[in-house]
Design a protein that fits this description.
By secondary structure, this protein is an alpha+beta fold. It has one domain: Hypothetical protein (Archaeosine Trna-guanine Transglycosylase, Chain: A, domain 4, Roll), CATH 2.30.130.30. It has five helices and six strands; from the N terminus they run E-H-E-E-E-H-H-E-H-E-H.
Length: 149
């Protein structure tokens, strides 16, 4: 199982944590995604929040031309996706859809300022970013938030 950090806007994070949004969409240039079923995605909620708020396990992974992803997931009302989600991936040659399984909202989110006090050279993710199990941000910061959830 690999671990990924991923930025997300607050309104989309809210939809994941409340169980509304069952798939997360990402633009990609890779025809073979780096992410697989069973991987862990830790959500860095951007904009005004700037904190690691929670995570989910990746279920089904779908990759393909953007029109294909939109066609497949727009037929599934249980996906929790809206036109706003589909607009995000339009224009990208390929898109990645990750099923959200077991979303967990941390009881004590880790804000960016706190993370930087512990790991001063940390940079928030700008896109889906794989991190190793021994990365200081994971070991010293996020795993602590996870165990107190």
């Amino acid at each position: 199982m690999a671990t990924f950090l991923m930025p997300i806007k607050p309104k989309f994070a809210y939809r994941i944590f409340t169980g509304i949004k069952k798939y997360d969409l990402r633009k990609t240039l890779e025809s073979k995604p780096p992410i697989r079923t069973g991987d862990r995605v830790i959500l860095y909620v951007s904009e005004g929040v700037k904190a690691f708020m929670g995570e989910y396990t990746v279920g089904e992974v779908i990759i393909g031309p953007t029109n294909y992803i939109i066609k497949v997931l727009s037929r599934n009302p249980a996906s929790g996706l809206s036109n706003e989600d589909f607009e995000y991936i339009k224009g990208s040659p390929l898109a990645l859809a990750m099923e959200v399984v077991n979303p967990v909202l941390y009881r004590k989110p880790v804000d960016l300022k706190s993370a930087l006090r512990i790991v001063p050279d940390f940079k928030p993710p700008l896109r889906l970013q794989r991190i190793d199990d021994y990365e200081p941000i994971l070991v010293m910061v996020i795993n602590k938030a996870r165990t107190s959830s």
